[in-house]
From TrEMBL:
It holds the Pfam family F-box. Gene3D superfamilies: 1.20.1280.50, Ribonuclease Inhibitor. Coiled coil: none annotated. This is F-box domain-containing protein. InterPro entries: F-box-like_dom_sf, F-box_AtFBL13-like, F-box_dom, F-box_SCFL_complex_component, LRR_At1g61320_AtMIF1, LRR_dom_sf. It comes from Urochloa decumbens.
Amino acid sequence: MEPCSKRTRGRGGGSSGVDRLSALPDDLLHAILSSLKARQVVQTSVLSRRWRSLWRSVPCLDVDQDDFRVNPEPLTSQNQKDLGKFEDFVNSLLLRRDGSVLHTFRLCVCESFAGHMHAGRWIRRALACSRRALHVHCDAFDDVVHMPLDLGPSLTRLHLSNLSLDARFAESVSSVCVVLEDLELIGCGLCFDNITSTSLRNLCIETGTPDYDRPAPRLTSLRLLIQDQFFQVSVNEMPSLVKASISYWSPDEEAAIQETQRKLVSNVGNVTTVELTDFLQMMVPDMEPVEFPAFRNLRNLVLVGCDLRDDFQLLRHFLQKSPNLEELTIRCCWLPEGFAGDQGTTKLKKLKYIEIIYKYHQGIRELVCFLLEISDRVPKNTITLTKV
């Protein structure tokens, strides 16, 4: 029979209890710790003797300066102390790694971070650990944090927010990041003419952007949210593109915006899903007729905030070129009044579902009549109307 004292220790907690956490396999422990912020990872070292140095080999580090801020105001003595603690923590976190591969490094620095020059050093240190994914975010636009020139050949995912990126960054993506598949640039200042990659599969740019005018043979997903008059946009040679989401607006003259929007649409002919946001009328006086490519693979079309007051010319052109369209969503678009009826012979035999989401009743009746005329599956086709 087991001695009473041992049974008591087995049931007890704290330092006298059984250390069940240490019995977990390393892969599971690493997965658990990788889901936490870096400061929490280090703090968990008190839970178990085995965990005391486990933080040194965690494959994913999520470093967030917000975890060290007590006062959100930027210029306080307390914030200066918090900044010092944050710098010391990140320095120790990266320098004391045990040589294990760092798969993912996330760094978030605040607007009040006076020592942004340290961020570049931390990024270089993380890149030296044979990483696969790098995420760098600044709360507000920052031209002090500089990306390293050598991003390394093993990087597969790169997400950057509110950074200033120059031609050297574009060159590194093109020539060094030979296996990069996922590139996301949010609110970044892009100081280069173009960027190219033969390995990219997912590209997301939400900012003013330069020409993306080189081949991207493997790109399957494209998201562009452009609100800048200083950059022209073009996307060419993307034969593998499956999904495209495009929003483009600038303070330029309306004709220039329309021309750019038409070019963007003309370069996504292979997609199965396309979402267009804030697109202007495609047919206006004194403008050449729009020639869209054939969207033979298109199954799902989403229009958000688009101007359809040209008697649905934009919509009609898409429908005429999309014989296999199955789902159509029209969300909060500008609609015409007094539409006389469809003037063409477009019939969508495969259209199964139409969703109309609107704020105002103006033009809804005309839109429904137009859609009923072009749909060849009534009453099998389902039309849903939702007021928001």
